[in-house]
Amino acid sequence: MPKISQKGLRMPASPIRKLTPFADKAKLDGKKVYHLNIGQPDIETPAGMLEAVKNIDFNIWAYTASEGTLSYRKKLTEYYNKLGYSIDTQNLIVTTGGSEAITIAMMTCLDAGDEVIIPEPFYANYNGFASQGDVVVKPILSYIENDFALPPISEFEKLITDKTKAIIICNPNNPTGYLYTREELEALKTLCLKYDLYLLCDEAYREFCYDGREFISPMHLEGLENNVIVLDTVSKRYSACGARLGCLITKNKEVWTTALKFAQARLSPGMVEQIAGEAAVDTPNSYFEMVNAEYRSRRDTLVTALNNMEGVYCPTPGGAFYIVARLPIDNADKFCQWLLESFEYNNQTVMLAPATGFYSTPGTGLNEVRLAYVLNNDDLKEAMVCLEEALKVYPGRTN
Amino acid sequence: MPKISQKGLRMPASPIRKLTPFADKAKLDGKKVYHLNIGQPDIETPAGMLEAVKNIDFNIWAYTASEGTLSYRKKLTEYYNKLGYSIDTQNLIVTTGGSEAITIAMMTCLDAGDEVIIPEPFYANYNGFASQGDVVVKPILSYIENDFALPPISEFEKLITDKTKAIIICNPNNPTGYLYTREELEALKTLCLKYDLYLLCDEAYREFCYDGREFISPMHLEGLENNVIVLDTVSKRYSACGARLGCLITKNKEVWTTALKFAQARLSPGMVEQIAGEAAVDTPNSYFEMVNAEYRSRRDTLVTALNNMEGVYCPTPGGAFYIVARLPIDNADKFCQWLLESFEYNNQTVMLAPATGFYSTPGTGLNEVRLAYVLNNDDLKEAMVCLEEALKVYPGRTN
Fold this sequence. Notes:
2 domains, homodimer
């Protein structure tokens, strides 16, 4: 029998999904499971986007240009220029979801053995994408006590070697919800220019910033044009995760030209999605106002409930729709599995993502979990009652 | 300024698209260009598939399971079992086009530095996918004089080293249209079992076999279950290239489990496409009868016209919708560019793909071109008149 590749053996299975079999069993036991473990929003996709799909008017479902249709890229340019990115259609490559934007950017910047620095906890699939290219992830710890702010630049400098080619940040952050400040981005700019590093910025959650706080992109920073690659997706912005429509943005012509070669190999992004994506740019502001008000209210529900529980702490995130909370537990993996397998309160339980899946440094995140606020406030309140009761009786409680 | 990766520098640009700027110029000159260079069919997508898109009935465009929806995988199982593949839903992973099926299969089987043997000429993007994984392609020549049949097994054996992990074939073949026989596949089976090699079979053109010839898949061969990975797509079968919907099929559980880890990293294939793909399986036979009759007639138009030209030769392909022809020319790249830039007949010209792009061995394919019969018979006849006239006056004509 032929052997699987070492790459395949090293490839991490999805940490977010590893509890799914236990969740399925919980359902079979008749328990109601509140799913706060994955980032699939319950918010409706804008009607205009779905209408565009229903109104398709072609007879041949054809390839588009590898970089995306000119029409969609023009429309995207409008969207980004309203945000002050100052780009044109030749700065964009349309991708199959944010995932493909990340893999293409990584292949463009990093060879096997090269190193990328990522503040942790970080989006778990960065590990998977790095494994695909035999790229080495150098994690750098951020701390819950500090709201998961950017680690000091001196800590980055300690990790830089001649193999270091890039830094990846996610802003607002998944899993912490942290929103980077202008000062933090300026500090990263100085660092990237000093060491000639790419700055890959995953902005999947750009639309979700709370409390009137300003969203700053490295695209806004002068002098960093050759270093910045923004990775984006419509998944969260329009609650359209299943559209698999994203894009890569760069003002570095060599990066764009190289990224296009990778895009050409896979021929084309989806045609119907680009039609839908074009319509999505015209989504009225009222949609985002409604969605932001809803998420903010859910965030407040969770933050209040969590911080009212004995021994629990979480910061108040400035963006995205995630919270990382510290719990009085021995081991988040065990606790999350126990919630599904061995606990119920009023025949209900809650599914959380152990934060261990978002840390790359062994032994970190053991007493942290990520909660995605993708359910309505009533459900969130019920879920928090479950969690509070669970913590009272969990055998591995630590204080 | 940060440096592009070596991977990116090595990555081949699409050979099929490199003439596009000259074609655009030809259009600007007011010449009509017959595009026989790319595999974008002019055949309509089945109405049922497009209706399924127009009739979507959901409010949240959500992720699906990483391996594809159970509903679509069930339907696909029906389709493949009618072909005698004897699979269940756990043998399938739904992918973003055939392209992703190929990259996932390659990552599952091959590490950086590993070798894959591919009979050439071959689908040019295999080179790109190999570059992405730093995999080494070992080409093995097939010959136009022999209809591009499978090279002798002894030639494969000469190339096998301890780094050889897999063989890739495309059946029916792009670019040659060659349809492999049962005997050829049995010979590959013996070889793969002897050396513990994976057999990756790209079956994008399965539906298009002519003259009553039988399509044989390695899925039909007993005893090869652990070695075979079939790579498929709806692109050509339903003329739905822009749907980016494919799948990977394997009976090797370890391959399936590992491939799923790569699929999980990118989260999900497209949701709307899977709905459309499910409807597509119910496409009536009359559609395929119509399409096959059309393609066969076009093939005959081209084969007859080409072989009637002085100094030109092409085999009669058993499948797909491509022909590789040998022309009395010095250099196919130059000739194809000259057709666009410097030639016109009745204010028309023709765009062909130089076969050099499908060969990996330097200096091969110089007097061959690939023609895709994706235009109607009248246009094909006009295009062949252009080609015949062009060959009469081309300055680099060789005999």
